[in-house]
Amino acid sequence: MLQRREFFDTPIEYLKGVGPQRGDVFKKEFSIFTFEDLLHHYPFRYIDRSKFYNIVELNAEMPYIQIKGKLTRIHSHGDKRTTRISAVFSDHTGSIELVWFQGLKWIKNYIKTNVEYIVFGKPSSFNGKINIVHPEIEESSKAELFNGPSLTGIYSVTEKARAFGLDTKAIVKLQRHLIASLPVFIQDIFNADILQKHTLMSLREAYVNIHFPKDELSLRLATRRLKFDELFFVQLRLLRAKAHRNETYKGKVISVIGEVFNTFFKNHLPFELTNAQKRVLKEIRIDMGTGKQMNRLLQGDVGSGKTMVALLSILMLIDNGYQACLMAPTEILANQHYISISELLSPMNIQVELLTGSTKTAKRKVILQQLSEGHLKIIIGTHALIEDRVQFSNLGLVVIDEQHRFGVQQRAKLWMKDGIAPHVLVMTATPIPRTLAMTLYGDLDTSVIDELPPGRKPITTTHRFESARLAVIGFMKSEIAKGRQVYVVYPLIEESEKLDYANLFEGYEAICQEFPLPQYSVSIVHGKMKPAEKEAEMQRFVSGKTNIMVATTVIEVGVNVPNASIMVIESAERFGLSQLHQLRGRVGRGADQSYCILMTGIKLSNEGRLRLKTMCDTNNGFEIAEVDLKLRGPGDITGTQQSGIVDLHIADLAKDRAIMEEAKVVAEEVVNKDYKLEEARHLFIREKLMRLDKEKTNFSRVS
Ligand code: ADP
Ligand code: MG
Fold it and tell me: Is the pLDDT of residue 589 over 70?
């Protein structure tokens, strides 16, 4: 009998029925190298093999189904070479078309008329008729799949794999061999206490039941167990990285709250801090005083006052003799931070500079020199700040605003700038669903500003169709008559840029006609304008010289005009939820009632409708983020950059929050006692982690 470890590590070609050639296919097509990899190739769905549908019952909304019948006609399409095979499949209730585009040679040889088959696939609709594209088909007299238990796993296969005979059926067979040779006793990574406490099936049972479920309940428990393990290792990695960092990197110690901070706080703070701001500031202060390097994520909905928290943190650094920088994702935003921070600090005689791509060479030279000599303490900028030629004398704190636009890599590069890592404060107004935050930023500490400054009224959001445009214009006029300002935003999606610009300019013209000079004036800002032009136009709106700002999403982030009270979003159905929420956050920044109006055409997809409804129903960014995660899935939200982190086979970040919370608790218990995993009882965890690490690059070092 093989030892447990050897079993998992055994190269896949040694499995009965695989051999070198299929072994290669497994490696190339599925990244399956070992027995363990194949064990982790879970079915993507299960069907009840005892259930057959009648063809007449089928509709395109159904998931995978099974039907039994005969082929009455087979047709190969294409002139010289067959490009498609279609066949009519009938039972006693009706007929349906089956279509194949790939693996045609095999299909051609396999299918015959007047033999009874079982067909398995997903019905879809084509030209008003129901068909099944790429069904699995099998002679019903030889149907091996149907001998086992009624719940059968279906595995994803590729066309190439199919060409080597590795279809679902073959994989089921191989899984059966594999499970049969599974060692009787698999040492679990968790002890009996943990298994019991978290209702976890044993690992061996879980492997057996995920591939060949005894019944529904066993399948549920197996799924839970394997999800738990996956999420446990996600958490374990992050927590270990954090523990390692705490042990390895010293931080710059912020020991005093000094004169600069106190003077500003006592004499120049323009408003009382909210309790949430105070709490977060305290968290930051304590963190930076420990001698460890701070890595903190500051989440706070749009308008919650993150900038002030950043500024006060920066002042703490200055008092302790360090430099600080604030990095924003766009020039406009960097500029706005620069203006507001310079203004706030103007009575204090503290130099603040701005460094962006459009900083003039001469000016840049001076700034770079002042930074490297340490005279300049506060620098605000865009990613121009992380270029190599920017050298600090003693950088103590990096504040990154709206970090989701910066990659993990860039963060790492930044922090290693001068030997000892500076403290890092990452601010985001994009509420991140908790599971995602735990996955992407699980190695960061988090602070949340969960309170808006006093006196803010919740924004009223409505959805309007084109037919209501006149009423909307009337409403804009009435707000402008009260002295308020209005944003009108157009979507801009790169693929159809030309069209979008046409919409934008047409919209602009129409608005100029509805709101003519001299009574009204209208600004326009879009991505194709030169920075200086854009800036001037923004400034006209910020200073109240224009009533209406027609724009693309360049105004999405950070722009702050408290006097603006209406946000009209054109073709709102084309925006994602988080973008809509960001845009809406441009209004509601003053004390008066603000409005967000979502304009759409009549035709809306179900998903589009749900997005609009969500926006109308809630102002809560976290609720919106949860819906967004369910609609789009985690990959889309995180972007490709971080996809390496979220490498999950079975767990689902949108659905498995509860399991993740539990797994995190267990991971914390392990890491708190023994993050290096040196103790004997953690041997199996360590082994498994090593095997997982072999598979992928370790992201922990750069995050
Ligand atoms: P965000 O968190 O979106 O970056 P800002 O920092 O831009 O928010 O703050 C939004 C607005 O609220 C700014 O005009 C800021 O001056 C104001 N503000 C911040 N904190 C407070 C407070 N405690 N009381 C009143 N106004 C505040
Ligand atoms: Mg901000």
Answer: yes
- For residue 148 the two structure tokens come to 């086992």
Determine contact, residues 25/34, Cβ cutoff 8 Å: no
300 lines ligand 1 (CB under 6 A): yes
* C-alpha 453 to ligand 1 mean position (Å): 7
Quick check: is 474 in a domain? Answer: yes
* Same-domain status, 410 and 503: no
Ligand 1, closest atom to CA 271? 24
Please give the residue range of the domain that contains residue 540.
460-618
Helices 683-695, 216-248: axis angle to 10 degrees equals 90
pLDDT, average across residues 308-327: 95
Ligand 1 atom nearest to CA at 401: 4
Q: What is the DSSP string of 608-650?
A: HHHHHHHHHH---HHHHHHHHHHHHHHHHHH-GGGTTT---SS
Looking at the structure, tell me whether residues 394 and 468 fall in a common domain: no
Cα 405 to middle of ligand 2, angstroms:
14
Q: Ligand 1: does its nearest atom lie under 6 Å from the Cβ of 560?
A: yes
562/421 same-domain check: no
Ligand 1 pocket test, candidate residues 277, 281, 307, most atoms within 8 A of CB:
307
The answer to whether the bond into 518 is cis (omega within 30° of 0) is yes
pLDDT at 411: 57
Q: Are residues 281 and 403 in the same domain?
A: yes
Q: Does some domain include residue 391? A: yes
pLDDT the model gives residue 2: 47
Number of domains in the chain: 3
Tell me what the mean pLDDT of segment 204-215 comes to: 93
Whether residue 359 is contained in a domain is answered as yes
Q: Is the CB of 274 under 6 A from ligand 1?
A: yes
Find out whether the beta carbon of 589 lies less than 6 Å from any atom of ligand 1: yes
Distance CA 231, CA 139 (A): 41
Q: At what angle do helices 168-180 and 203-211 cross, to 10 degrees?
A: 150
In this predicted model, what pLDDT tens digit does every residue of 61-97 receive, in sequence order?
887 788 999 999 999 988 888 889 999 999 999 999 9
Query: Could you give the angle at the alpha carbon of 144 between the alpha carbons of 141 and 145, nearest 5°?
Result: 120
**Average pLDDT over every residue of 205-215:** 93
Closest ligand to residue 308's CA: 1
For 250, phi then psi, to 5°, come to -85, 150
Q: Which of 200-214, 285-299, 369-383, 663-677 shows the lowest per-residue confidence on average (mean pLDDT)?
A: 285-299
Here the CATH number for the domain that contains residue 161 is 2.40.50.140
Is any atom of ligand 1 closer than 6 Å to the C-beta of 433? no
**Highest mean predicted confidence (pLDDT) among 266-270, 493-497, 498-502, 620-624:** 266-270
Among protein residues, the one with the nearest Cα to ligand 1's atom 26 is 453
On whether both 596 and 466 belong to a single domain, the answer is yes
Q: Do 274 and 378 share a domain, yes or no?
A: yes
Helix orientation angle between 306-319 and 331-345, rounded to the nearest 10 degrees = 60
Residue 562 alpha carbon, nearest atom of ligand 1? 14
**496 and 359 fall within a common domain:** no
Ligand closest in space to the Cα of 300: 1
Q: Give the atom of ligand 1 at the shortest distance from the alpha carbon of 340.
A: 16
Token digits of residue 272: 């009382």
283 and 168 in a common domain = no
Q: With a 6 A CB cut-off, is 305 part of the ligand 1 pocket?
A: yes
How many angstroms is it from 277 CA to the middle of ligand 2? Answer: 13
CATH number at residue 586: 3.40.50.300
pLDDT > 70: percent of the chain? 91
Which residue has the CA at smallest separation from atom 11 of ligand 1?
303
Tell me 273's DSSP state: P
CB of 307 sitting under 6 A from ligand 1: yes
Tell whether the model's pLDDT for residue 422 goes beyond 60: yes
Considering every ligand atom, which ligand is closest to the CA of 298? 1
| Domain end call among 149, 181, 213 | 181
